[in-house]
Structure to design on (189 residues):
């Protein structure tokens, strides 16, 4: 397998892991996926004596890697690792169920930077009903761009995420009323 193909597969795996972590509500795993998390073992514990660099920065300096940012639909740009992770923690704390079906996934790699564009087909659910039955499910579409950077250790870490809602035309409802107003997805990564 060529190095280019191996890079694309590694980026695809990192991108899939991002969405899997959000689906599981695993903020620790999500934290390890973003630039600035430092050198970690598989359990997430920092290795002593290990230095990972990004553009000449040490782990301590890397905490606020320039450009780490996220844009969720309807949110302002959040900059800095701490703000980014807090936004995900807030989303996870207020979403009882979320599942992503990624389509239109395209990966481009240039050196140590990779861009992934995809459509997030999202199914999410609210709190359970009073009788214990499942809460309402809501679907939405978001077009996302994820930017990854390869660290010196060879790991692909998320540098930026931008999600934009996809406006969809709604069909007429059963009452014959025209609902041609444009709507948008409700939940996004």
């Amino acid at each position: 397998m060529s190095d280019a193909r191996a890079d694309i597969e590694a980026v695809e795996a990192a991108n899939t892991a991002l969405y899997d972590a959000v689906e599981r509500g695993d903020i620790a795993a999500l934290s390890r996926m973003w630039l600035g998390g430092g050198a970690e073992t598989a359990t997430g514990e920092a290795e002593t004596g290990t230095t990972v660099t990004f553009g000449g920065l040490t782990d301590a300096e890397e905490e606020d890697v320039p450009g780490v940012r996220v844009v969720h639909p309807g949110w302002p740009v959040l900059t800095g690792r701490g703000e980014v992770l807090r936004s995900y923690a807030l989303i996870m704390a207020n979403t009882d169920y979320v599942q992503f079906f990624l389509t239109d996934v395209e990966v481009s790699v240039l050196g140590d930077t990779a861009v992934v564009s995809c459509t997030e087909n999202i199914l999410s659910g609210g709190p359970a009903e009073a009788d214990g039955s499942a809460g309402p499910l809501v679907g939405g579409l978001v077009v996302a761009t994820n930017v990854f950077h390869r660290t010196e250790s060879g790991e692909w870490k998320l540098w930026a995420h931008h999600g934009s809602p996809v406006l969809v035309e709604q069909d007429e409802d059963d009452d014959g009323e025209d609902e041609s107003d444009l709507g948008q997805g409700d939940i996004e990564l």
Summary: Confidence is low (pLDDT under 50) at residues 39-62, 178-183. The first strand starts at residue 69 and ends at 71.
